[in-house]
User: Which sequence fits this backbone?
């Protein structure tokens, strides 16, 4: 049970991080002048408007947030719309349908969503990393560089670093200037000349790659493999036991995993509505994200051990390291199969999640040991 103690310790550390923070929740949240926040702010509401400074980080999960005053550290927002009109002292991380930067950000801006917009007042002292449908830089200044990808991109402002973008379509404004150069990768050849293009513009054409052809695929696979190897190295008995448990009770565990996959987000949303339970909701979120990540690793290990056991004729247990590698590579490749890949992905997810949770449930005192 060393692994269960390891997980419990991680959850306790997360709890200590949340201790002492300011939690706000409800239909609409307004923090007005004179009502400044002197610590981290966790906020969940349909509409959030901040008109007073926040001393530390802001963590927001809402439909819309408007930041009109200073943020003392990072702004992390998971919303439908994020508008930053105040001064942010460090990083902005936004996952939203629309993200608007209309003031100074001292650190980097990482923006992922449908639309990212930098106004003429925007001043990013770090770099801009985007993954969006439409990128609009309508003036302003970026001290670092710009990287990432966008379906449609309009660049019109000063950039001190290098601009390196993947885009479906690119346009430049009259005031665009990138001191570090501009490199654009298009998915299709140009059909017409680009107006206002800089003299040092470099354009390359690369057909859009499938996920398994991208560098992120190999990064994700390597990350899962390293995590699995860590688990096997330090918790070898647990790894072998949960692999056997997942295979022996595959249908039952998958059923439990399916319930957990959809029920936990519902519980998180319910807890977010009540102010007093926001810390519990955040802990549930941390546990849920952990389960989502570890589930594929558990399923990969179980699949690899099953395959290795079928081919081994000497009766010896399969090697966990090799089994993990075989199982993960099969899962990662089949998930990319058109039309049916998502089915296999879902099966691996619910099997791993259900097996992980039920394994520890059966380890509770008084419960029947099923593995």
Assistant:
């Amino acid at each position: 049970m060393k692994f269960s103690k390891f997980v419990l310790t991680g959850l306790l550390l997360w709890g200590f991080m949340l201790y002492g923070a300011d939690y706000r929740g409800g239909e609409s949240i307004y923090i007005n002048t004179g009502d400044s926040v002197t610590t981290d702010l966790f906020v969940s509401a349909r509409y959030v408007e901040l008109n007073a400074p926040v001393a530390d980080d802001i963590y927001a999960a809402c439909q819309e947030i408007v930041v009109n005053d200073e943020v003392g550290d990072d702004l992390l927002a998971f919303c439908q719309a994020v508008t930053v009109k105040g001064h942010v002292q460090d990083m902005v991380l936004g996952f939203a349908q629309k993200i608007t930067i209309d003031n100074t950000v001292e650190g980097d801006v990482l923006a992922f969503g449908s639309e990212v917009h930098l106004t003429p007042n925007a001043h990013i002292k770090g770099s801009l990393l985007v993954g969006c449908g439409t990128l609009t830089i309508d003036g302003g200044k970026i001290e670092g560089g710009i990287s990432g990808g966008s379906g449609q991109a309009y660049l019109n402002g000063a950039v001190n670093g290098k601009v390196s973008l993947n885009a479906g379509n690119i346009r430049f404004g009259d005031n665009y200037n990138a001191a570090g150069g501009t490199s654009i990768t298009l998915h299709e050849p140009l059909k017409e000349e680009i107006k206002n293009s800089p003299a040092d513009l470099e354009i390359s054409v690369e057909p859009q790659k499938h996920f398994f052809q991208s560098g992120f695929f190999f990064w994700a696979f390597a990350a899962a493999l390293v995590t699995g190897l860590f688990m096997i190295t330090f918790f070898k008995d647990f790894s072998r036991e949960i692999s056997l448990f997942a295979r022996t009770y595959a249908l039952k565990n998958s059923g439990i995993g399916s319930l957990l996959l959809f029920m936990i987000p519902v519980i998180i949303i319910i807890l977010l509505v009540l102010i007093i339970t926001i810390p519990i909701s955040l802990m549930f979120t941390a546990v849920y994200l952990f389960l989502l990540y570890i589930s594929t690793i558990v399923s990969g290990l179980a699949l690899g051990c099953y395959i290795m056991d079928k081919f081994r004729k000497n009766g010896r247990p399969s090697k966990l390291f090799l089994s993990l590698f075989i199982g993960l590579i099969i899962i990662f490749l089949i998930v990319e199969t058109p039309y049916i890949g998502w089915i296999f992905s879902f099966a691996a997810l619910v099997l791993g999640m259900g097996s992980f949770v039920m394994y520890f449930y059966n380890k509770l005192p008084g419960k029947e040991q099923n593995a």
Remarks:
- Residues 56 and 72 are 5 Å apart (CA to CA).
- The mean pLDDT is 83.
- The chain has two domains: 22-209, 213-362.
- DSSP finds seven helices and 14 strands in the chain.
